[in-house]
From TrEMBL:
This is CubicO group peptidase, beta-lactamase class C family. It is found in: Membrane. Keywords: Membrane, Signal. SUPFAM superfamilies: beta-lactamase/transpeptidase-like. Its main location: membrane.
Length: 370
């Protein structure tokens, strides 16, 4: 079994047709599919006034049905950007603060956590600075006790368990990346909103007009793209993940990485962020987007960040994968552009293909290289 690897009506102009300026990039995309032996590869170039798309390949390796850019693809840990987005809205509404302590919001935890966790806040959890263990591998998750009840009840049980464990040692200074921390953050959001995280995502996306699903796309519809994995790191051929295979993300960890969306819907979500970073308020205030992307060094709230060598211009990004899909998101506010590249495969070849296509698009649409 494979293991876990490393959210008011507002409409934006969207160009669903591949623009002429992207036509010359199609051979690059097609070549990357062949070189890395991945089933499909899709990309969105996101600008303030429109979104253009590239796509190629198939929904399932060895089957003729072509992948469409309107298909659902699993975005993995890019889900963290959805969870932080929902948190930001609740902060703006005054229902919670970034510095709200976990134990104050979830009183069942008082007196039942290690002293190292006594003062951790929503901001600490969303920025991976709470010291929560990663829960990013099968053995680590398999060692957890069984939790029962509703998903929200499972998140409380998970909190009671993990907050008795010794803290994680930061291995990505200044933060220690943690899927578990996002489950605890979601628990806080559930308490102040009186809705489950799943309900919060559904209500938010219904308001914005975005489609989404929790879990792998082919679990609900076998005609949707199948995820593909490498049975071992030495494999060179991807195996399609059948709907009946029980591999999944534990439901209480879903806020860290278990949303699937069609590329146009996810690209519109990223476009909201790009506009916000360009000081155009929309669903959130412009200053809130700045905080989400750049409010802390290296990793803010659902978004990693850095600067280009030489120019010092800032970028933000996130990757998402559970070994069967790979999604790479990258924003360059100074150039008024963002990119999403996604494939229905996981592992090193999938990451290499997504990064290579993003580098190609970065050269074409910005003055920067990485």
């Amino acid at each position: 079994m494979k293991y876990l690897a490393s959210v008011f009506a507002f409409c934006l102009p969207v160009n669903f047709a591949q623009g002429q300026s992207l036509a010359s990039s199609q051979p690059t995309l097609d070549s990357l599919i062949q070189v890395h032996r991945i089933p499909a590869l899709l990309a969105a170039v996101i600008e303030p006034t429109g979104i253009r798309y590239l796509h190629g390949g198939v929904r399932q390796q060895g089957k003729p049905a072509p992948a469409a850019f309107t298909d659902f693809f699993h975005i993995g840990s890019n889900t963290k950007g959805i969870t932080s987005f929902i948190a930001a809205k609740l902060v703006e509404q005054g229902k919670i603060r970034w510095d709200s302590p976990l134990a104050a919001i979830v009183p069942e935890l008082r007196g039942k956590v290690r002293t190292e966790y006594a003062a951790i806040t929503l901001a600490d959890l969303l920025s991976h600075r709470a010291g929560i263990r990663p829960y990013a591998s099968g053995p680590e998750i398999d060692a957890l006790p069984s939790f029962s009840g509703s998903i929200s009840q499972k998140r409380l049980q998970f909190a009671l368990h993990t907050l008795q464990e010794s803290p994680a040692v930061p291995n990505q200074s200044p933060f220690a990346y943690s899927n578990g921390g996002y489950a605890l953050a979601a628990l806080m959001l559930e308490r102040v909103s009186h809705r489950s995280w799943e309900e919060l995502v559904a209500r938010t996306f219904r308001t914005l007009g975005y489609r989404h699903r929790i879990g792998f796309p082919n679990r609900q519809d076998a005609t949707q793209p199948w995820g593909h994995w490498l049975e071992s790191p030495t494999d060179s051929v991807f195996t399609a993940l059948e709907p009946s295979i029980p591999y999944h993300i534990q439901d209480f960890l879903a806020p860290s990485g278990d949303v699937a969306m069609p590329l146009p819907d996810y690209a519109r979500f990223v476009q909201l962020h790009l506009l916000g970073l360009l000081e155009q308020a929309n669903y959130l205030r412009a200053a809130t987007y700045q905080q989400l992307h750049f409010g802390q060094e290296a990793y803010a709230y659902g978004w990693g960040n850095g600067t280009f060598t030489g120019s010092g211009a800032r970028f933000s990004f996130h990757d998402g994968t559970v070994g069967t899909f790979f999604c790479h998101t990258f924003t360059v506010p100074s150039q008024k552009v963002a990119f999403v590249v996604i494939t229905n495969a996981g592992g090193a070849p999938a990451q290499a293909a997504c990064y290579a296509l993003r580098r190609h698009l970065l050269r074409r649409f910005t003055a920067h290289t990485l």
